[in-house]
TrEMBL record:
Protein name according to UniProt: Diguanylate cyclase
Any Pfam family hit: GGDEF
The species this protein was found in: Prauserella muralis
The UniProt record lists the keyword Chaperone: no
Transmembrane segments: 24-40, 60-82, 102-124, 136-161, 181-211
Matches recorded under Gene3D superfamilies: 3.30.70.270
Length: 396
């Protein structure tokens, strides 16, 4: 990866013209804006980074992407390095992490700049209607290269080094990537202001500070209802969503089912392989539940090694099919992790005991359904584990 980066930098610098006086002025404006942004959001950014368990989306593209469009490659990379140094004092992470992030950001910016220049940008001061459409399309292509290189470079490294990589841990969530796209879009707007009316870039400094704080607020709201380990809903988030689904089904005189999923012999995993391995199992199960349930189903972590799935509009027969599918899927998982000595190992053949409760047959409230499903889980465990049990077995 380092050789790829060095090759990219070498090619970009070899084809980069010497900076002009205008280039230096624009660089100074972007550097000042980035510095104001970083320094005024240090506390918010530090808290946001400490809460993030997956790929962190940096909001500095507001300043880097306009450099991609209007500055030579040497100044583009210089701006990235300047921002990364300031970020290092904020996050206080190991130096090698920031060397890697600086390389990935710089390479993405340099290659995006080369793409933009190769496709023949126009003088923005002389654009006509059709010309502006062409230029807009060119900016979109450049943005795609800028984001795509980062995804490939960072995602490739994480995929190779993570014991149990998932799309979320490697690429970030949909919300994370939407945030990155918005930030890059703001960067394109900053470029237009920088070329046509440079003093107005100060407005973007204010916008980015507010945007950073809104991003933190959105993350705080998400953290309240999300289990940090698995990325699923926690009990608060799950209960709120489940209550809304139950109310809807109740008004329509419909039905729904609840699955309570308990991983068998989970303590043995922690005792044998260590707690990090147990965490990897929980993450793998959470991912599997997301893959084998419907978009309308509500999946959450109940606590410990227990999970809950609410199946709107699912009767007894549909619930049995869903529960068996979950049981078989978890049993087939092959989970790559590490043991207590840090050596690679694989955990397989994990079983689950699943309790099923159906509304309105077994209970008419969410708490009642949970109690009924919990009782069914205990019955499954008492009868040998690795099976599905219904709250009222006299119906089967």
């Amino acid at each position: 990866m380092e050789l790829v980066a060095l090759g990219g930098f070498g090619f970009a610098f070899a084809n980069s013209p010497a900076p002009t006086g205008t280039d230096w002025v624009r660089f100074a404006i972007l550097a000042a804006g980035a510095t104001v942004h970083i320094q005024l959001t240090r506390r918010q950014e530090e808290r946001r980074r400490n809460r993030t368990r997956t790929v962190l989306i940096d909001l500095i593209a507001v300043w880097v992407f306009p450099a991609v469009l209007v500055l030579p490659a040497t100044l583009v990379v210089a701006l990235v390095v300047l921002t990364r140094i300031q970020r290092w004092f904020t996050a206080r992470r190991p130096a090698h992490n920031f060397v890697f992030s600086a390389i990935s950001h710089s390479l993405a910016a340099a290659l995006a700049h080369l793409t933009y220049v190769a496709l023949g940008p126009s003088d923005w001061h002389t654009l006509t209607g059709l010309g502006s459409l062409r230029e807009f399309a060119l900016v979109l292509v450049t943005a795609a290269v800028y984001e795509g290189v980062q995804v490939l470079y960072v995602g490739g490294i994480l995929t190779l080094t993570s014991p149990n990589p998932t799309p979320r841990t490697v690429l970030g969530s949909k919300a994370d990537n939407l945030l990155e796209a918005i930030t890059t879009g703001l960067g394109a707007m900053t470029a237009v202001l920088l070329v046509t009316m440079p003093p107005t870039v100060a407005i973007m400094a204010v916008v980015t500070v507010v945007f950073n704080r809104l991003a933190e607020l959105d993350q705080l709201q998400d953290d309240v209802v999300t289990d940090s380990k698995t990325g699923l809903l926690n009990m608060r988030g799950w209960s709120e969503s489940a209550e809304r689904a139950l109310s809807r089904v109740s008004r329509a005189d419909g039905t729904l089912s609840m699955l309570m999923i308990d991983l068998d012999h989970f303590k043995w995993i922690n005792d044998t392989f260590g707690h990090p391995a147990g965490d990897d199992v929980l993450i793998a199960v959470a991912k599997a539940l997301g893959e084998v349930t419907r978009p309308a189903d509500i999946v959450g972590r109940f606590g410990g090694e227990e999970f809950l799935v609410l199946l709107p509009d699912a009767d007894t027969a549909a619930a049995e099919v869903a529960a068996e599918r979950v049981r078989r899927t978890i049993s087939a998982l092959r989970i790559e992790t590490t043991d207590k000595r840090g050596e690679r190992t694989e955990i397989t053949d994990r079983t689950t005991s699943i309790g099923v409760a159906v509304y309105p047959v077994d209970a008419s409230t969410l708490d009642g359904l949970m109690q009924a499903a919990d009782a069914a889980v205990y019955e499954a465990k008492e009868n040998g584990r690795n099976q599905v049990r219904f709250a009222r077995n006299d119906r089967h």
